[in-house]
Amino acid sequence: MTGAAAQQPTVREVYQQFAQCEAAGQSVVFEQWAAGVAADPEVCAVIDTLPGVKRQPNLVFAAARWHGLEPGPYGALRRFLLERWNELVPTIMRRRTQTNEAGRCAQLVPLLASLPQPLALIEVGASAGLTLVPDRYSYAYHCDEADAVRLDPDDGPSPLVLHSELHGIRPPSSLPLVVWRAGVDLDPIDPRDPDARAWLETLVWPGEDDRLARLRAALDLAAADPVPIVRGDLLDELPGLVAQAPAGATLVVFHSAVIVYLDDAERQRFRDLVTSLPCRWVSNEGATVFPDLSGSVEATRPAGSGHHLLSLDGVPVGWAQGHGRSLTWLSNPLPPQHNETP
Ligand SMILES: C[S@@+](CC[C@H](N)C(=O)[O-])C[C@H]1O[C@@H](n2cnc3c(N)ncnc32)[C@H](O)[C@@H]1O
After folding, report:
1. Of the candidates 60, 94, 128, which is a domain's last residue?
2. Residue 90 burial by CB count (10 A; 0-12/13-18/19+): exposed, middle or buried?
């Protein structure tokens, strides 16, 4: 990156933004908690003692819940944070928001299926690998002016059916064909580890019972057939993984809700790296992560909370609701090319 680093938002701004743009309409409790923190200088000052990346509302709230706070009014969170802060800090420092959302696969599938098949997939920031197996889930797509469309893996319906709304695009006729997959994460999660599973459940926002059920079902599937995930930094490990991918398949490097954890210089390094490698690049990240990409289509962003920008090779293709609930395709859809050879 060149020039001065962008100024970091304040704790008040981060929590205000979270309340208004992410939690609103998704979790009443988190909306109230985040708005409460934003309006509370004493609590903001306490959270401000954390390193930048650890000030995330979801991480701080999850730590409080991990230590016994039940979802409820802001006053209870306030007391908990002020009275038990020393207890929470080690949890906040040791753990990460490794939220896995299998539902995001419903947004990846139309894009992945439009690429020449078969596919080799590399997910950076794969966590427990639940978004690295889009071909193992069933889908129920609810489309504009059409009946729901169901897609199942070749070997039959999956125990996990992902429901999603598609706007401006039809679902593909079949699931992508994945012949190879690999992931990298700073801290891969073993889907069989009870402690890790409990932390992932704590990360699910209060009131989002559909996400909890999805998480448990996807973890069970992953535990039965885990995917290979290398431990390490994506900037270091990606070239080695790309070198291992088999010939004869379209290699796709993808990520969702990961690049947001990199600072501006690292984001640029990642972008330079991925665009220099022999692969397609699918990004599913918050709108602020690559502002030059989202800025060009900002006017098309759907109303409501938490839409990620879905892009292919640095070109915006759609707005993806942050937890997989909908995909709004942009007006320049890619022609479906299913079953083309790479
Ligand atoms: C919020 S999770 C997203 C998991 C999954 N992609 C999904 O959408 O459900 C973000 C993951 O990125 C990983 N991560 C963050 N920075 C990373 C880095 N520099 N290298 C590798 N993994 C990283 C974290 O450990 C975490 O597991």
Report:
1. 94
2. exposed
- Evaluate whether 2 touches 281 at the Cβ level (below 8 Å): no
CA distances from 25 to 98, 203, 281, 304 (A): 22, 17, 31, 7
What does the alpha-carbon distance between residue 1 and residue 169 come to, in Å, rounded to a whole number? 36
The CB of 127 under 6 Å from ligand 1? The reply is: yes
Q: Is 129 in the pocket of ligand 1 (CB under 6 A)?
A: no
Q: Are residues 235 and 297 in the same domain?
A: yes
Cα–Cα distance, 124 to 306 (Å, whole number):
21
Q: Is 88 helix (H, G, I), strand (E, B) or coil?
A: helix
* Mean local confidence (pLDDT), 149-168: 95
Q: How far apart are CA 201 and CA 106, in angstroms?
A: 21
* CB crowding 273-287: b at 16 or more within 10 Å, else e: bbeebebbbbbbbbb
Q: What's the pLDDT score for residue 303?
A: 79
Quote the CA–CA distance of 91 and 96 in Å, as a whole number. 9
DSSP 211: H
Shared domain for 50 and 34, answered yes or no, is yes
Please count the other Cβ atoms lying within 10 Å of the Cβ belonging to residue 10.
13
In degrees and rounded to multiples of 5, residue 13 shows phi and psi of -65, -40
What is residue 124's three-state secondary structure?
Answer: strand
Contacts of residue 294, Cβ cutoff 8 Å, sequence gap at least 6: 287, 288, 301, 309, 316
Nearest to 257 by CA among 64, 71, 107: 107
Query: Ligand 1 centroid vs 316 CA: distance in angstroms?
Result: 21
Q: What is the pLDDT of residues 159-213, one digit of tens each?
A: 999 999 999 998 999 999 999 999 999 999 999 999 999 999 999 999 888 899 9
Which of these three, 62, 94, 126, is where a domain ends?
Answer: 94
Domain count, the chain: 2
Q: How far is the CA of 96 from the centre of ligand 1 (A)?
A: 9
- One DSSP character per residue, 16-79 reads HHIIIIIITTT-HHHHHHHHHHHT-HHHHHHHTTS-GGGG-HHHHHHHHHHTTPPS--HHHHHH
